[in-house]
Design a protein that fits this description.
Elements lengths: L7 H4 L1 H10 L12 H7 L40 H4 L1 H6 L8
Helix pairs in contact: 2-3
Length: 100
Amino acid sequence: NCGFYYSDLSCGTLIYCDSYDTYPATTKKGFFKSAEECFDAHEPAPILPWIEKPTTVRPDTCQKGLSSAECPEVCGSGGYDEYLCGTKFFCEGFDLNPKP
């Protein structure tokens, strides 16, 4: 909930602009006619650098949970983060409706 009046400052740009379409009757501190018009008036979100999936290979002989120069962490062995798995695999983990 963003309080009595929706504003960019109290809600953040995503919720504030989206409210023009999802809650059109709610009082807002703004003058936009639609979410699209609101988003167009704001700077686009920054695009972070894409991280490719590393080519590091962990030998099958490595003990689970052990990490060393000979047994490096790879995606799934020590966690699932963007640096170990790459941007594509990491982001797909948040997709509630994955593409086949």
